[in-house]
Design a protein that fits this description.
Blueprint (H helix, E strand, L loop, with lengths): L5 E3 L2 H8 L3 E3 L6 E3 L2 E6 L15 H10 L4 E3 L5 E3 L2 E6 L5 E6 L18 H13 L3 H6 L6 H5 L9 E4 L2 E5 L7 H5 L24 E7 L4 E6 L14 E7 L2 H10 L4 E5 L3 H8 L4 E4 L5 E6 L11 H10 L3 H8 L3 E2 L18 H9 L7 E6 L3 H15 L4 E6 L4 H6 L5 E6 L6 H6 L17 H12 L3 H18 L2 E6 L2 E5 L3 E2 L2 E2 L2 E2 L5 E2 L1
Parallel strand pairs: 4-13, 4-14, 18-19, 18-20
Antiparallel strand pairs: 1-11, 2-3, 5-6, 7-8, 8-10, 9-10, 11-12, 12-13, 14-22, 15-22, 16-20, 16-21, 17-21, 23-26, 24-25
Length: 520
Amino acid sequence: MPTRRSVLLGGAAAAAATAAGFWALSTPDRERRGPFRVGLIARGEIATLDPAQAATESPISMVWNIYDRLVQVGADGRIEPRLAQEWSVSTDRREWRFRLREGVTFHPTGPGAAKPLTPADVVYSLARAVRIPGYGRTLLVDVLQGVAEVVAGQARSISGLRVEGNEIVFSLLNPSNFLLDRLATSFLSIVPEGSPDEGNPAPGTGAYQLVSFDRAQQTVTLRRYPGHWNEVSRDAPETIVVRAITSEALGASELRSGGLDYAEFNSSALSVMRAQAGSAYHIEEYPHTELRLIALNQTRAPFNGSHGPALGKALNLSIDRAALVGRLGGGAASGGPVPVAGFEGKQYVLDRGRARVIVASIPAEDRILEMLVEPVDEARMIAELLVRQWAEVGLSVRPVYGRGDFFPKAAAGEYQMALAYYGPYVPSPEQYLWMYRAAAIPIPNVMRFNDPAFEAAFAEYVTVEGDGAQQAALARALDQLLEKAPTVWIVKPPRLRASTSAMTLPRSAGLPIYAGLRWD
């Protein structure tokens, strides 16, 4: 691990940082010199920029622009090629071949030519991602041959990956309908072969190169990479300085003083942001995939007992989600695992009468609960309203407002209930259900949910051929989750952005793509 709190990169990146960056508006009377200043307000700490370890939105939004993946979800929600130019699948769907794009180079870290991308880099990156504890291993352990051995420390490389010319060949454990969805995540970004598991962030191939990361100041400086393989908008900033601003009050102060050119924030900050931004900023919602939910720890009482599923149902049935949407100023109610169109029938809806009947059947000691709350204002706002709603049906829930150790505590299972969020990279049923797999314990399956009936239905859904068979298996998987209720599904909250001028900023998986920025 680096001993300096501020990680500075040398060589070409440092030289580029000394140049005076600028970005220009597409209107003839305005030009701004200096970096494009971005504020991520109350969106979490930037603890690391390692793609295999970055697990919250603020660092992931940086990873998304510094690194590339084999494939990625496009602005239209479809999987599109990135470092893989094309791919093919065998008739039994157990072998996938990805042909790499030519002419791609990694960001240089010193004098000399930039290192070209090779298939060996891809093979190494995926093995590294599953060696490091985190999301990467849970994405591939039930799909790709040899991953379980790497996770167990019995191998350093994945036996189910091999190189043939300019192709990477994946040998799967079972047929897969959703391998591309798994590969489209930030955790499986590509780094150079030999990159260490710890230390300074490895070079990427993305449109933006990392210049510096000051963890103490929560500031990241990016510079447009002139050797990027893909088209970059003429309005894309030359230099971007991103700050993770911990509190909504500080973020509002930055808007009032004009210290930011662009900001993203939660719904709880909307009123104060509008008041402070005045007419200097355009404020609007942006699309995302996040679902606010409450994990119910299946290894702790009372959720590990016979009354656990009934208690989960009562918690879900007693929520007035429409009132939450009104309190948040937008968003959409979502009382089920998959918050996308077509699944409205697989959700809980408000039914306090039924909730009271269920609560009456639960022992009195199991009706007293404690809920760990993510340390952001939006989560606190939701918690306060939920506590009052649950009290109406006889449930006593005490909120415990988390601190910087919230996510480590949740991953370690040190909680009874935990209010946080989950947002997949591809907004598909498979990706929303992925978090409930036993293979996804301890993250993102912090509930530690392990149900054989759900596992069987999910496995059939991701492997069976034919739309009808897939949909039938999916329905069974959803029914199992609603019956066992390991989670309280709440709302898809609004996410907002403020900018100094009207702009088009394309997003992928809800994350900004700065290389595509265009001023309207």
